[in-house]
Write a structure and sequence with these properties.
It is built from no helices and 10 strands. By secondary structure, it is mainly beta. It has one domain: 3-layer Sandwich (Rieske Iron-sulfur Protein). The two termini are 15 Å apart. The mean pLDDT is 86.
Length: 115
């Protein structure tokens, strides 16, 4: 299957532990400020979230596709340094401690990732 669907994110082979892919969110309500999502690989599994910190709604990535802290243990907000568990999206430190990233459903088909 080629990556021509509007819900296609990219190839699974482009993800390695510690890396992420940004993608545009389709069909969002006009009052929803979230415009992008991201998918990451962590400990061999794939997870996807809205690219929005629960604290102020800012995007998480330091640079396009860079979501992890230096130790590759947590997702980290580039603005306030909040840390999130990659497998649950739960904030474990920072101004939004106890809140979570909004998870997105992601699936793989013939090596392609889709939402």
């Amino acid at each position: 299957m080629s990556c021509v669907s509007k819900t296609c994110i990219g190839k699974r082979s482009h993800l390695r532990n510690g890396t992420g892919l940004r993608f545009e969110l389709e069909n969002r309500p006009s009052n929803d400020a979230t415009e992008s999502g991201f998918v990451i690989a962590f400990q061999g599994r794939v997870y996807a979230y809205e690219n929005r910190c629960p604290h102020l709604g800012v995007e998480l990535d330091w640079a396009p596709g860079v979501f992890f802290d230096a130790a590759q243990e947590y997702l980290m907000c580039s603005t306030h340094g909040a840390r999130f568990e990659p497998d649950s999206g739960k904030c474990v430190s920072g101004p939004c401690a106890g809140q979570s990233l909004s998870a997105l459903v992601v699936f793989e088909e013939e090596g392609e990732l889709f939402t």
